[in-house]
Amino acid sequence: MALNCGIVGLPNVGKSTLFSALTAAPAEAANYPFCTINPNFGIVSVPDYRLNKIAEFIPPQKIIPTTVEFVDIAGLVRGASKGEGLGNQFLGNIRQVGAIIHVVRCFENDNIVHVEGSINPARDIDTIEVELALADLESVQKRIDNIPKMLRSSDKKTVEKAKNSESILNTLAATLNQGIPARNIEMSIEQFDAIKDLNLITLKKQIYCCNVDENSISSENEYIKQVKEIAQKNGSEVIVICGKLESEISELETEEEKKDFLLAAGLEESGLDKMIKAAYHALDLQTFFTAGEKEVRAWTFNKGYTAPQAAGVIHSDFERGFIRAEVYHCTELFKLGSEQKIKDAGKLRIEGKEYVVKDGDVMHFRFNV
Predict the structure, then answer these.
(1) Could you report the per-residue pLDDT of 39-95, keeping only the tens digit for each?
(2) By the 8 A CB rule, do 347 and 275 touch?
(3) What are 331-361's pLDDT values in tens digits?
């Protein structure tokens, strides 16, 4: 799965404003549809209180957070799967991301044009999801049409793949034809493996992002309730953000100023920080740490990685020559206060090649190349 998250939605729902605030990079934002044509890419630091807390106990010369990439994809419209707007190009961009943040407009403002002429989150969500489902249906139908040819192949693997995928492809086609996402279908590991190369958009994890006005940050409006009802039915997470507020926060120069601004707005954490964390987890990413005098650093790894694979995140030589890992969890450091006390308490573990790394592990790798 790609280690990035695509920001999608109808035109003029606030995608580019949120992207600019996220990355503090000026994605073009304007009050007309298709302002964004080519996708914008931005690397964003993942907020993690544990990183700075580790640095309190092991003071380094520098602190380096882990990151996640966001892609600002132009607005989809009704008929995108048939090429309306710039549909084919946009759908192609969405296929390349690992997870989706679906921005939904949940505020009234007569000065900002809505492509459908009114605010209706349920309708807007349905428009996007139907278009994505129809785009996936086209991919699935092409594979179904190719099954007879695959079954006649002299290559045994091709024939086996055709046999394994035929049933799930037909199920997918029937489901997608109703505008229902592929992620709603229960499938076995074998079935998933048989169709994963189709890179279906509606199989990707999705987060709904309600873009609201300042008045709805602390109290839910009816639009947010609509989105939450839909999300509950399909098992998606909901983040509530005020794009205008986040844009103002992003222009502040210091972390202290940002904290004061949030306090004045009655918020403990910015909506964008919540969105970054949600995206990170939607991509099945976790974090391990390395800590020393030179740097305390957070590293991104895929959930389920073994110790050598995690070592390979730092450098391929670490994985190739992996001997062992010295490991403790960051919570042990917070509780005991130093690495020496962790050793004295018998909490420092020596782990081998089979060890599955846990989120929050602090690791020292031993290797020989």
Answers:
(1) 678 888 888 999 999 999 999 999 999 988 888 876 665 554 455 444 455 677 788
(2) no
(3) 999 999 999 999 999 999 999 999 999 999 9
Rg (CA), the chain: 23
Report the C-alpha gap between 126 and 72 in whole angstroms: 20
CA distances in angstroms from 36 to 72, 139, 324, 327, listed in the order given: 8, 26, 48, 46
Q: Are 327 and 297 in contact (CB under 8 A)?
A: no
pLDDT of residue 30: 36
CA atoms of 96 and 56, how far apart (whole Å) = 39
User: Residue 359 carries which DSSP code?
Assistant: T
Closest to 42 in 3D by CA, of 13, 10, 64, 73: 73
Of residues 146, 42, 152, 158, the one with CA closest to residue 101 = 42
List strands edge to edge, sheet with 205-211: 40-45, 67-72, 4-8, 99-105, 205-211, 237-241
Phi, psi for 179 (deg, rounded to 5): 80, 15
Distance CA 237, CA 206 (A): 7
Q: Which two tokens stand for residue 54?
A: 């580790």
One-letter amino acid of 189: I
- pTM equals 0.82
Residues counted in the chain: 369
Distance CA 65, CA 174 (A): 44
What is the rounded distance in angstroms from the CA atom of residue 53 to the CA atom of residue 172? 47
Any residues with CB less than 8 A from the CB of 369 and at least 6 apart, and which?
A: 317, 320, 321
pLDDT at position 249 is 87
**If 0-12 CB within 10 Å is exposed, 13-18 middle and 19+ buried, where does residue 35 land?**
middle
SS3 274: helix
